[in-house]
Protein: ABC-2 type transport system ATP-binding protein
Amino acid sequence: MINIQSLTFSYRKNKPLFQNLNLRLEAGHVYGLLGKNGAGKSTLLKQIAGLIFPDQGFCEVNGHISAKRQPSFLQDIFLVPEEFYLPGIKVQTYVSIYAPFYPNFDHNTFFAYLKEFNIPDGQNLTEMSYGQKKKVLISFALATNTKVLIMDEPTNGLDIPSKSQFRKLIASALSDDKCIIISTHQVRDLDNLIDSIVIIDNHQIVFKEDVQTVTDKLSFKTVNRLEDIGTVLFADSSIKGHHVITPNNGYDHSKVDMELLFNAVLTNQKPIQEIFN
Ligand SMILES: Nc1ncnc2c1ncn2[C@@H]1O[C@H](COP(=O)(O)OP(=O)(O)OP(=O)(O)O)[C@@H](O)[C@H]1O
Structure:
């Protein structure tokens, strides 16, 4: 569904952010895009959405080259940016202006999502807090029914109950023909929602695996003594003990600790990659 090939891009001369970056994303998945500050997550999402253009290579979405920004491409992709501006108008007016750009927009679902988030639909957007505006934008994004839905740090600014509502809404919106990409630092917010993990680092995609494959090949556990277990691929200690990643012997069914996996991939990349190759 999304095919990025040999993407090279820099904001400033001689400082490439991406160098021959390749990535394929399929429909029917919720991808979690992880990376350090400044790794290029937002930039990559903007490249996919056709908001900025490659220096070399291309991003192709459903057969359309993003940079060409054809109407048939734009009506089937929606990006919820990390920072956004909403005009000072009522929610209903906002919908009547912007929904027509999306032929599959579902008004009933939009107002149902707003209700789920406790946002009164008669309110003016200028009278809303940042979190409330974000809920309007997320509801709008989901109601567009676009094949590709991209969200940059969507849970930033959401209160604790809204985070679980958000997970519920995304899970219910996913279908076999949709691809959802979420960039986040708040991996715990998206636990149980993300089914594939993509990590960007050092101008490249350094890890891309579905959660099932990760748990088939790796075990995540907490132990008191590192000496008691065999090969340790990565360990992080806390007062609760040593949180470790070990190769899975084939019998373990542990839950992925995304934070631990992220730190492991960034600090001990080669042995982890070898397990997946
Ligand atoms: N408009 C711009 N002009 C010049 N440089 C930019 C611009 N936007 C981003 N950058 C630079 O590109 C790099 C990647 O930025 P980007 O926002 O894509 O990273 P990120 O992974 O989303 O970071 P964060 O986790 O902090 O949100 C950073 O070094 C940033 O300073």
